[in-house]
Amino acid sequence: MARFLRVNMTDGTAGYEGVPEKYSMMGGRWLTSTLTAEEVPPTAHPLGPNNKLIFSPGIVTGSSAPTSARLSVGGKSPLTGGIKEANAGTRWGQQLARLGIKALIVEGQPATKGKLWGLHVTNESVTFFPADEFAGIGLYEVYPKLFERFGKKADIMAIGAAGEFLMTNAGVCFNDQEGRPSRYAGRGGLGAVLGSKGLKFIVVDGTGAPSSIPIANKELFDQGRKKLTEALMSHDITKPKGGLNSFGTAVLINIMNEAGGLPTRNFSSGRFEGAADISGEALFEGNKQRTGKELYNHACSPGCIIRCSNVWHKPDGTEHVSCQEYESIWSFGANCGIDSLDSTGELIRLCNDIGVDTIEAGVTMGVAMEGGLAKFGDADAAIQLMHEIGKGSPLGRILGNGAAFTGRALGVVRVPTVKGQAMPAYEPRAVKGIGVTYATSPMGADHTAGYTIAPEILGVSGKQDPLTTSNKAGLSSAFQSTTAFIDSSGHCLFIAFAILDIASGFEGMVEESAGVLGTNWTADDVVEIGRKIVKTEREFNLAAGMTKADDRMPEFMKYEPLPPHNVVWDVSDEELDSVHGA
């Protein structure tokens, strides 16, 4: 039976309650955003006692659906001041789902500040345990100790030192299948919300739980699973030894660089001369040279058949870090003028260890370099600045609060943020559709909220000119609605490549979800659900004090032409306001 687990940090209690009927069909982002909108006052301080942090597995998470181990984390963002959902692929979410936990809600705040707690959730009990001994220790050291204590069948959610310091770039960390602290619901500073509540860990062990979530219509579910699997296994981007399995998400480095949309040296250019040295192809060849093997990528979580997660090795063949994703390599690479995968690998490893989002951290480094704290291309200086964040020094606390905060502290004008959140690895002046998503998503600048890169750059679902402003509002609106449902279903966003090109793949996703719940949903139904999710999120933001002025791009992009195309941001405010029918 589905249930909510409510954890009250004010009185140190945790207990189960039934799921009200109105939430029975919801999961993932649909549920985290709905509960946030209904239970968190929009004007509440994000780090105060009235904010909540909500974990919810997707609708099909915990089933045999392919690539479906996503878990949503939601609440009010300390970074943007608005609603936030971040998600990760992790067995932790699957275990939560199989324990029948539809949502885990963390609320309240201890009267005594500074003490840290962990929570151990099993099929039989929910218990608190003291966690002060782990304060300030890097997560690469902490996770093995927790596995030794709780066993290898357990999975861990944790915050790093950044979350303890209440930095607004603190992420929520989960282990991958090998136990590494490397899978992050990173964006929006939700790790700081846990830090404000004194909750350092949630350890989940589903031993004794069913091997799958209940499925109301197994025939329909199996039909959908077959369709989606076939679509993913046949698409060039998602199939075995295809683009993602061979080169990881970093396959986009050379593609975006060629398109003139790879933000370079704090968004001052769209092309980086060192792109080839930090590309997915360079990753593949570098690993081959260092290990003597052709290493195709692995799954970040059970059931993933796209398998785009990688390991970068040191020159002696030993492991350096997992995972060097496109956005992470770009943020510390091209964006900082650094052309070494060893350097980006170390910076990513530090983010994993400290507990911060790699996108926000890399963009912050670019702003810091613009502000004179280091020279572009100086990897050693960037590494030292990351150590400042980990120590929680005065400078580290500035940097740990993100790009917008750092820009204000240093007097930098070129600060690439929307709603206080740093832009990811796609230059909006050169790729207009993704810029519309950055501007109008309730989440702040977030490519995953409406990934128009698929048609604009990759030619998925029909090629669109990335430089034109024509129909970009409609494109972004459609992608935002569809994505909101994908985030609710529990599937990885990367299924979008196949379901947009292969109609049966989209049918499969819908049928899987309908099969689990016993509904008769159609494609139109799930898009409408997505639209309502985005509407709920926007209404929360409006009540929190946001206005149309928050759905805008940074001013510098309107007057600074971006090389090599020498284009500016020229999508009109009226076009932006039309995205959600405003």
How would you characterize this protein structure?
Strand 10 (172-175) and strand 11 form a beta hairpin. Helix 16 packs across helix 18 (472-489). The chain is built from 23 helices and 16 strands. Among the domains are: 3-205, 4-Layer Sandwich (Aldehyde Ferredoxin Oxidoreductase,  A, domain 1), CATH 3.60.9.10; 249-296 and 309-426, Aldehyde Ferredoxin Oxidoreductase Protein, subunit A, domain 2 (Orthogonal Bundle), CATH 1.10.569. The longest helix has 22 residues, at 523-544. By secondary structure, it is an alpha+beta fold. The mean pLDDT is 97. The strands form four sheets. A six-stranded mixed sheet has the order 2-1-6-3-4-5, with helices on both faces. The protein has a six-stranded mixed sheet with strand order 8-7-12-9-10-11. It is globular. Helix content is 40%, strand content 13%. The protein has helices at residues 28-39, 91-98, 139-150, 161-164, 190-196, 218-234, 243-247, 252-258, 280-291, 326-332, 341-354, 358-370, 379-391, 394-399, 402-410, 432-440, 453-456, 472-489, 495-501, 503-517, 523-544, 556-559, 573-577; strands at residues 3-8, 13-18, 53-57, 70-76, 83-89, 101-107, 117-122, 126-130, 155-158, 172-175, 181-185, 199-205, 312-313, 319-321, 417-418, 421-422. The protein starts with a strand and ends in a 5-residue tail after the last helix.
